[in-house]
Fold this protein.
Amino acid sequence: MKKTIIFHIVTLISTSLFLSLNLFDPLVIREHLETKTFDLRLYLRNVIKKPTPYNGIAIVAVDEKSIKEIGRWPWKRDIMAGLVNKISEGRPKVIGIDIMFSERESKETDGKLLAAIKAAKNAVLAMAFDVPTGNKGKNVAPKDIPDFLWDSAFMVVKGEKEIPWREWAVKPDDVIPPIEEFSKASTLGHVYTHPDRDAVLRWEILYLQYGDDFYPSLSLQVARIALGIDAKDLILYGGSGIGLGDRVISTDLSGRVLINYVGKEKSYRYIPAADLINGIVSPSIFKDRIVLLGTSAIATYDQKVTPFSSNMPGVEKNANVIENMVHNNFLRQSPGVIELIAILLTGILIGFFIPRLKAVQGAVMASGLIISYIILACYLFIYHNLWINLLYPVSNMFSIFTIQTVMKFFYEEKKAKEIRQMFSSYVSPKIVKELIDNPDKTKLGGERRVVTVLFSDIVGFTSLSERRQPEEVVSMLNEYFKEMADIIFKWDGTLDKFIGDEIMAFWGAPVEQPGHAELAVRCALNMSDRLNELQEMWRSRGGEVLDCGIGINTGEVLIGNIGAQGKKMDYTAIGDHVNLASRVEKLTRQYGARILVAESTVTSIESLIEKGAIGHFELRDLAFVKVKGKEKEIKIFELKGLKQREKTA
């Protein structure tokens, strides 16, 4: 009972801990550990159900080839103007330019690029924001806000008053927009990103709060124009989502969404900028497509670390986000209800059943629950775009199982040690092992059981003690007892005690031994044969020769740990049949026999004798005798082994 209570306390502590972790979800754990399982599920998703990149997006990349052919980066703006014009010729739905034009170059080249932007009529330019580390939720006083930025801010902002979503918005303290002429001729979108603590970019921030206004990301602006949605129909529902025409994109309180990456870099169609400039690629491939213009060359330093890649160009990250918005298939993070239920249910199941199951059964159950939850998590991720926490429920299950298994191991070790200490001086190592493997068989405390009892006593021990020095007597006794004890253990007997020169042993306890009478008889014959050999050895040494009498009886006794609790206890047998076995042994002197067996024992092995299963012995019907303490006479038999019979013949 005490052990079970401790197991339940362990379950309660572990489950409470992981429920708390799931509720508060510390970033240090989520962004260093749980996100790794997120990445693995993305990989698995692409193995089982690899998504097909949206064909409506094309990337014009300033890659290594383009830099080699056109010249070092950054290019002159007249070159960029020609590139934008080439793209515009293809009549794309929108051109998203993920390149910063925050400084003036020259009146001539700036004018050419401005003309190209105006001619396109659908260009979205990138603007950068400076967000101090750890500013989320803090009120940052921005510097002077250029008037031309307001045209790109959300026109409609709604938010639940009871949700302090504005406190969670990302708030930059400075902005780096394109030059004023470019900004007025285009739509602006921010390109601020914030990777998780392991430096992997998994989230897109769809809006920033700068001053009192909110500014969409470049990807959001590109998707809006591609879908033909007017700026006034782009609605910010603070802390919950963004209305994009007739669809709503759900966000967290900070305006973030989980990017559903289609794969590693180069998943979308790339067109080298040089090929377009040099006329190798026709602008017609851009018709009715979303075109993103950006850099991919390593030297341009716009690479992002994603779950699939450590070298994805930022422009392709934008392509993934835009596709997610067009198809409204962002990944979603579970609010935590599924995880709470899983932690509670699996904690209760494992905590209740593991203490009651064997090690293998417990391992199978715990493994089954863990694997089932992992399969559920992968299924929801792959087929429903839902990211449920894998770490906390699995860790709770594993912790409860491991701690309880270790506790059971130490408890069983302690119990096995107690059993070994308790019985190693009584029974053979084979029976000790069986008791350790099946501790319930001990049933300590006393029970009634039919056993076969053997007493053995040295003949003439008193006179021997008077003739010899105590040291010599003890030496002979030790030699004799060792040999006899080894034989008792050999025949799986329980050595009860040494009483002076007397040995008491029994069979049938502490474990069940259906053939206990047969084992006792065979043991007695073996003891007699070994005693003959010892006598020859003692004679050859010129020393005293010991002889013994052996009495055997079978019957019901009370057996178990008997004594003073916590002081001195012995595993022994008591009862009339124990006394009868002792008195049968005493009759060996009267009848001049070494082994006498009571009728109850002979009856127990009678069928074996008739079948010839026991051989090499002689069993002689000796007499009916009346023993002390018994009114009814009992029948006794003399048992002789072949060696003893030859010796007395």
